[in-house]
Specification:
Pfam families: zf-UBP (PF02148). The protein is of the alpha+beta class. It has a single domain, classed as Herpes Virus-1. Helix content is 22%, strand content 13%. The protein is built from 5 helices and 5 strands, in the order αααββαβββα. The chain has helices spanning 4-9, 34-39, 52-57, 83-91, 143-148, and strands at 64-67, 73-75, 95-98, 105-108, 113-116. The longest helix is centred in the middle third of the chain and has 9 residues, at 83-91. The N and C termini lie far apart (43 Å). The protein binds zinc ion (2 copies). One zinc ion binds next to helix 3 and strand 2.
């Protein structure tokens, strides 16, 4: 586990070994990922353990999805409010990935297809003690009937 802050704090400034000014080993920028970076930002941690809008509304969800660009956590299209898709429409962020334990697929709204994406900043799923549907205590007893209705 590597904390993103540690990565930023790691610099070569403290290393002075009578250098010859050879230019160091700075990582060159690869321009090839330019467009991908607008869709996926692996360094952004998730917004929290549950759907952002459901937490504000007192709602509940079936499964959680994570925006691969800004870390927004929203609920899936099987949920009553479909906040993950709503986030795509308001933000234009086209890629989500699963926020369920054991799932690592990505989905592109613009193509309608799933694909394997990069490793994102942890955590990559909601807490294991949080049930699905969730959150605990807010899921109606007849949630299956509500969804099918
Ligand atoms: Zn939601
Ligand atoms: Zn987003």
């Amino acid at each position: 586990m590597v904390d993103p802050d540690d990565i930023q704090g790691t610099s070569a400034e403290g290393i002075s070994s009578g250098g010859t000014g050879a230019g160091g080993t700075g990582a060159g920028s690869t321009g090839a990922k330019g467009t991908e970076a607008r869709r996926i930002n692996p360094g952004v941690p998730p917004s929290g353990p549950g759907c952002v809008e459901c937490a504000a509304d007192g709602g509940w969800w079936v499964h959680l999805r994570r925006c691969a660009r800004c870390g927004h956590i929203g609920c899936c299209d099987s949920s009553p409010s479909k906040h993950a898709t709503a986030h795509f429409h308001v933000s234009g962020h086209p890629v989500i990935c699963s926020y369920e334990p054991g799932e690592d697929w990505f989905y592109d709204y613009t193509t309608g297809g799933t694909f394997d994406g990069p490793e994102l900043a942890p955590p990559t799923s909601h807490p294991a003690d949080q049930p699905a549907p969730g959150p605990k205590g807010r899921v109606p007893l007849d949630w299956r009937a509500q969804l099918s209705g």
